[in-house]
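Please go through the sequence line and token line underneath and see whether the fold suits the sequence. See right below:
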Amino acid sequence: MKKFVFILLILSTFFPIQEISAQQKNEKMGHRLVFHIKDSPDQMVYLTVHHRDKLYLRDSARMRESGVFVFEGENLYEDGLYSVISQKRRSYLNFIIDKDYHFEYFLDTTNNVFHFSVKDSPENSEMLAFQQKTQTAQQEMQEVIRKRKEFENAKNQDSVNFYKARQLTINGEMEQFINDLIARNPEYLFSKMQKAFQPIEIPDPPVKADGSIDSNFQHTYYLTHYWDNLDLTDSRFIYLPVLENMYQDYVKKVLFYLHTDSAIKYADLLLSKTEPDTLMFKYILNRLAPDFGNSKALGHDAVFVHIAKKYYLSGEYPGGNEETVSIFQKRVKRWEPLLVGKPAPELIIPDTTEERWISSHSPKEKYVVLWFFDPDCHTCKRESAKLKVLYDSLSTAGSRNFEVYAIGNDSDLDRWRKYVRENKFNWINVGGHTANINYLDVYNIIETGNPTLFILDENRNIILNKRINVDDIPQFLEQHENIKLQLGKKR
């Protein structure tokens, strides 16, 4: 169900008032939408536009005479899918605005589309015919399913098969109806929306020269052709629900689970399907950046850095305001040196004796866990205790392949030393604010807070820059080894 947001959006980034062309000036100025709502109890109704997963208030109209509501003015509404909403937040009608800004709609409060009619809007007449066909098909399908279940219970297979076939026929008739609708008026916004709802057809994978099947073909085809049925050069889709549904499925359910390089590749591909410096380009870009930038998943910070550098900071997106560019510049500066795969900045910090300065790159173990903590932090205490149990148990079992380099960033050195001594941490303990570099700044501890965890590989490159449950460290390292092994086999 759509969420109704009681906000009037005027002259904002996503709701620009459309310019009136010379041709429109010579014909009809502005807009005049008349709704005749039989038996309406309302003194006022609201006009809402579909944007993302919500309905945004666009206008309101008071009853002029019995059941008649008129929205009129000199400006033009954005083309898109609209709803008329009652005073009790009930939807009376969905309709399209697409270059027709002067029409009349006749309806009632029953939601029975067979009682509806429209005047002076051929596209809304097409949409109403679709709604009527859909309602008829749904009603017939419900009855067919009821009869099929009835005969399944009676174990009458012939009748079951008949109603199975009837279900297929109803679906086929509906598909053909939609295809004919699209073919008749392919430039109608409603036709484009129906086309976008259709899934792409994925061909069978080709056979390689050695007779094997390309197992990645269909996945790659899906990612590459996902948007084939939605025209991303048409910014009007911003006000159609199909765009939000497809964006969520593509980005949140697919790109979010790809390797970083692949996620970057297909994020760029998505943007390339729009036209530069259009409303759609800005809309997609302004969704991708925060979606990846605010994600806690490993590797998504690298996708954000790529998007920020390529589009916002390069000047390719001139619509980025100064405040956004400044924020992104600072974030890229902090994040980029700490991305997975980057060389970890070496730390050289004194231990509890203050006599030995120990390097974070010096442990003989294959992996190093950098553990930034504050002994006065409750979460740090709890997680450090869990890390100690893991560390000691793996040491006893002889299966520990990592060393912990624990940095106590507490200004009270006596409190830190006492904490380390009392808890008998057997790993490398260093601390204080005397070091070869300002590690709080270099490792971005000021932003991330305590505790913070990094894992370095044998080359002392970063392989983990997100805090995970410390109990999951062995599993993470095992997965890392497996991925390296699989990549080695492909080369």
